[in-house]
Amino acid sequence: xxxxxxxxxxxxxxxxxxxxxxxxxxxxxxxxxxxxxxxxxxxxxxxxxxxxxxxxxxxxxxxxxxxxxxxxxxxxxxxxxxxxxxxxxxxxxxxxxxxxxxxxxxx
Length: 107
Known about the structure:
By secondary structure, this protein is mostly helical. Helix content is 64%, strand content 7%. The chain contains five helices and two strands; from the N terminus they run H-E-E-H-H-H-H. Strand 1 and strand 2 form a beta hairpin. Helix 1 crosses helix 3, helix 2 crosses helix 3 and helix 3 packs antiparallel against helix 4. The longest helix has 20 residues.
């Protein structure tokens, strides 16, 4: 569980710094050496190669948000990362994950 949360938090942190009016651009270099400079969370997540299954879920959240709404991909990933961060502190307090999920559903 800790590894899944940590991997997901890393993905959220990557796009978090590109959010808002003071968001920073990211320079991405692919395997061929092509450079992409962007501050769009959806583009960042499309370009990076994610191997971890839990982190891939956050990339899928971004893609789904982009397909359904067309905007808010970075916000969706940052929100999911924040929810996982809170869940991690609850797990540290020995709260069972199903209780956490039930609480998130009610909220």
